[in-house]
Amino acid sequence: MNSLWGELLPEWLDAELWNTFIDGRKKMGKRYAATEGAKKLIFMELDRLRQQGYPPNAVIAQSIRRGYLDVFPIDKRQLTPTVVSGAMPVYKFEDRPPETVEQRARAREVLEEARRRIKR
């Protein structure tokens, strides 16, 4: 990567995701390619979101998936609320543990039951 940021990526940011995001912007056309100043501003926004509890790698992945030119907070429906003594809930991102074989089997049973009910 021929960038000032190639060697200076923060430890909390996955280099492969970052490069994919920047390459995606380049592929959208010269007009959307990220300048060094734009990269700095994106890093600043990622750090601000990280301090608010949003995982930066998930934020970048969302931008890649949706074809965004910038980074935005993850939808709060994907975050787990944490209630603190009657205050408004604070949302934190928590990775779910991988599902177990039993959970998968139960999900298949529920799906099959729903399909049977629809056919009636």
Secondary structure elements and their pairing?
Elements: H1 15-27, H2 36-51, H3 56-66, E1 80-82, E2 90-92, H4 101-119
Helix pairs in contact: 1-3
Unreliable residue stretches? 1-5
Report the principal-axis shape. elongated
- Binned strand content: 5-15%
Question: How far from one another are the termini?
Answer: 59 Å
Average pLDDT value? Answer: 81
Strand order of the largest sheet: 1-2
How many alpha or pi helices? 4
The sequence of SSEs as H and E is: HHHEEH
Largest sheet: 2 strands, antiparallel
Task: Determine the structural class based on helices, strands and strand pairing.
Answer: mainly alpha
Our count of domains comes out at 1
The proportion of residues forming helix, as a percent range, comes to 40-55%
Write down how many β-strands occur, each being a DSSP E stretch of 2 or more residues. Answer: 2
Q: In angstroms, what is the radius of gyration?
A: 20 Å
